[in-house]
């Protein structure tokens, strides 16, 4: 029973990492204008992982709001 739970948790973690990588790739694939729009949506709210990803991509591209 413990082995099954460990395997299930490992599979869940793997799927979560795959989803996170897909989100990061999607943010990186946005055009400059779309990236700025995304960043603008999250600019006034509390920090979130998606906001952090957008800001990191903007820094990489040397873009500002």
Task: Explain the overall architecture.
The protein has one domain (1-61). It is an all-alpha fold and 65 residues long. The chain has helices at residues 2-29, 32-43, 49-61. It contains three helices and no strands. The protein is elongated and about 50 Å long. Helices cover 82% and strands 0% of the residues.
Spell out the key features of this protein.
65 residues; mainly alpha
Number of helices: 3
Query: Which regions contain 5 or more consecutive residues with pLDDT less than 50?
Result: none
Record field, number of beta strands = 0
Which quaternary structure do these chains form? single chain
From the N-terminal CA to the C-terminal CA, the straight-line distance is: 52 Å
- The run of helices and strands is HHH
Average of per-residue pLDDT values: 93
Helix content: over 70%
Q: How many structural domains can be distinguished in the coordinates?
A: 1
The value of Rg in angstroms is: 16 Å
| Largest sheet features | none
Shape: elongated
What portion of residues belong to β-strands? under 5%
What class would the helix/strand composition place it in? mainly alpha
In terms of topology, how is this protein built?
Layout: H1 2-29, H2 32-43, H3 49-61
Give a quick summary of the entry.
This protein has 65 residues and is an all-alpha fold.
């Amino acid at each position: 029973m413990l082995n099954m739970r460990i395997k299930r948790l490992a599979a869940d973690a793997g799927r979560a990492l795959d989803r996170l990588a897909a989100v990061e790739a999607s943010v990186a694939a946005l055009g400059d204008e779309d990236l700025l729009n995304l960043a603008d949506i999250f600019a006034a709210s509390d920090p979130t992982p998606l906001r952090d990803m957008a800001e990191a991509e903007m820094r990489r591209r040397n873009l500002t709001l």
